[in-house]
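Lecture notes, part 5. Sequence design as translation. It can be helpful to think of inverse folding as translation between two languages: the language of shapes and the language of residues. The source text, in structure tokens, appears below.
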């Protein structure tokens, strides 16, 4: 089972194809070896009994795998393969698919046992283009069975992201904020990806919250769970019942409004009117939702929430949404920069929405300092309470963003590095990031291509999976950091 709710389970089929002028037994034998290697990797693949030679076979294989609930498929060219029936099968089955092919095993088999799948991959790719199909094609798509099995294992991760996005619904409450205009990206490209969008008002949220008031036992149970999770970090116990009521409201709304979709995320207005109406900040509740696999982005950042969800599916671990926020002073001592220079360092920060499992020991519920300055200056914190604050756990990380430009062009960036073992000496949910080459990347990609301040943060290296998933989703404008000496198009060479 997946450790995170709200996450697709990939049920992967494997089908062999064979051109009729090649021995069908060559594909059958090689496919069986691939399946055996998959099982050694603990990949529960479902092999089709039908080997596809003709269009009739294509329909039979599609029906066979559809009946078994397959939602992704690896098409294996055991020999040259018939490109027409191969792509008809992919079209009729209608699930994310990959193309992979058999390498020749030995000089002893290059007469009666040669399959020519290296050649067949070219024709299969051409036919995908003719039918406007977008397969996943591995970097080295032709290999021996153990190599093909590893390709399939990677494709499972890629397919999970694609399936999740194509079956996703975004819930938002409140208008996107004027002061953070960067969150106001057009939603049309979300529909192009297959995502459903449901926008609601802040009044809807407030009425939803109030409607939960009489569910005392449920609220008390959630508050008790919050107290258990916070432990000694429960510095604002007087706020737990209000926060629990809000969590109950969002959970109930999520369950009742997925409609035609299997998965969902939130992107909600969280300030400045929220605090005066509700009497708390929603950050801690957001952190608990994302810990269960339901990203809840701040400031109605819908693309931020989608980015979080994609990073979650790629890493299979809770994620967070942070501001790419501030530079790192030289007097913050760091032993290991993991290949980054000092100028490549930055702090990732947000008010307190990062799950407890992603923070170091000692995380606490506190009040939001920036909002407190604005809303309760000189007074004891009250309506600005409800953040979860602490230092991000050190380790590998991926910083990721999917975004639409103002003219509805989808673009994305991916950068891998490390959250460093360092004391940020500041407030909020915060950590020091070391990303090799990030200073130039920040200038020539993030600023120049007009990305907003929010980034999805995965607590693993997930760039390879995200890059391949974006390709399957049709996002071709993907930026990654360039090595020293490899200039960005706008970078001054002098």
């Amino acid at each position: 089972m997946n450790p995170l709710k709200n996450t697709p389970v990939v049920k992967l089929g494997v089908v062999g194809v064979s051109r009729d002028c090649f021995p069908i037994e060559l594909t059958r034998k090689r496919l069986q070896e691939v399946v055996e290697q998959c099982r050694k990797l603990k990949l529960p693949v479902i092999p089709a009994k039908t080997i596809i030679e003709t269009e009739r076979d294509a329909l039979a294989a599609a029906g066979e795998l559809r009946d078994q609930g397959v939602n992704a498929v690896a098409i294996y060219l055991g020999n040259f393969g018939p490109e027409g029936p191969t792509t008809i099968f992919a079209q009729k089955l209608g699930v994310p698919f990959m193309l992979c092919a058999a390498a020749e095993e030995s000089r002893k088999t290059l007469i009666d046992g040669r399959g020519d799948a290296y050649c067949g991959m070219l024709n299969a790719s051409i036919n995908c283009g003719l039918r406007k199909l977008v397969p996943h094609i591995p970097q080295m798509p032709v290999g021996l069975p153990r190599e093909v099995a590893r390709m399939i294992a990677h494709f499972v991760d890629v397919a999970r992201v694609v399936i999740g996005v194509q079956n996703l619904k975004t819930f938002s409450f409140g208008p996107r904020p004027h002061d953070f205009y960067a969150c106001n990206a057009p939603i049309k490209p979300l529909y192009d990806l297959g995502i459903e969008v449901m926008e609601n008002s802040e009044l809807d949220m407030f009425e939803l919250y109030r409607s939960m008031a009489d569910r005392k036992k449920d609220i008390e149970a959630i508050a008790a769970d919050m107290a258990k999770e916070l432990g000694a970090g429960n510095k604002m116990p007087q706020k737990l019942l209000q926060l629990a009521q809000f969590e109950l409201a969002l959970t109930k709304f999520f369950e009742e409004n997925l409609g035609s979709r299997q998965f969902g995320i939130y992107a909600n207005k969280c300030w400045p009117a929220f605090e005066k109406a509700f009497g708390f900040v929603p950050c801690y509740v957001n952190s608990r939702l994302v810990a269960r696999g339901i990203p809840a982005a701040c400031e109605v950042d819908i693309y931020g929430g989608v980015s979080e969800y994609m990073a979650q599916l790629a890493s299979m671990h809770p994620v967070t949404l942070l501001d790419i926020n501030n530079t790192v002073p030289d007097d913050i001592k760091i032993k290991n920069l993991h290949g980054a220079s000092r100028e490549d360092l930055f702090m990732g920060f947000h008010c307190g929405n990062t799950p407890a499992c992603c923070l170091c020991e000692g995380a606490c519920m506190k009040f939001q300092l920036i909002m407190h300055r604005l809303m309760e200056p000189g007074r004891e914190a009250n309506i600005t309470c409800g953040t979860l604050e602490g230092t991000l756990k050190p380790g590998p990380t991926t910083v990721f963003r999917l975004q639409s430009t103002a003219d509805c062009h989808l673009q994305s960036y991916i950068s891998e590095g490390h959250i460093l073992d360092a004391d940020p000496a500041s407030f909020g949910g915060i950590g020091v990031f070391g990303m090799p080459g990030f200073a130039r990347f920040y200038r020539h990609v993030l600023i120049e291509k007009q990305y907003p301040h929010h980034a999805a943060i995965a607590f693993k290296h997930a760039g390879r999976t995200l890059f391949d998933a974006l390709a399957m989703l049709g996002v071709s404008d993907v930026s990654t950091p360039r090595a020293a000496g490899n200039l960005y198009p706008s970078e001054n060479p002098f």
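The translated text above is only one of many valid answers, since several sequences can fold into similar shapes. The first helix runs from residue 24 to 40.
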